[in-house]
Amino acid sequence: MIRTKEIEFVHLLEDNQNILHKICKLYTADMDSHKDLFQEMVIQLWKAYPSFKGESKFTTWAYRVALNTAISLYRGSKRKITTVDWDNSLQNIRYEEYDTQQEEQLKSLYAAVRRLNDIEKALVYMYLEDKEYTEIAETLGISEVNARVKMNRIKNKLRTLINQNGEM
Known about the structure:
Blueprint: H1 2-27, H2 31-48, H3 58-74, H4 86-92, H5 100-114, H6 118-128, H7 133-140, H8 144-167
Helix pairs in contact: 1-2, 1-3, 2-3, 3-7, 5-8, 6-8, 7-8
């Protein structure tokens, strides 16, 4: 039975490891930190897997465990994980159809997102991944109404931050 659970876990993880990589990119700045965080998230997922009852989608559960792992490590445990330098990341994401104005708007958005707290970043990340509010709420351990209210507040906060940057 244990072997079956192990094989099942490995298959689910292989099919959904992009979730972990995206979260690692959000919370780390270099490949070594990325690998360390990825490994820590896999360990935490494996430890928690026996408690996964299938009441939610595996991806929702994995988001929750992975985000909690990233946030707890980021918040100052023994390991120091630095956040992604969004300005440098933008240089790697060049799309010909974007004009200069759009690129500047993206830079402003990323600069504003960088100023959000960990939970707000996670909420924005999932929102931008087109996750339903029910899944966001379940992943973050809050009510759906709370997720919607928080997202509206974050949108307003981002508008304010972007406007402040534009005036500087």
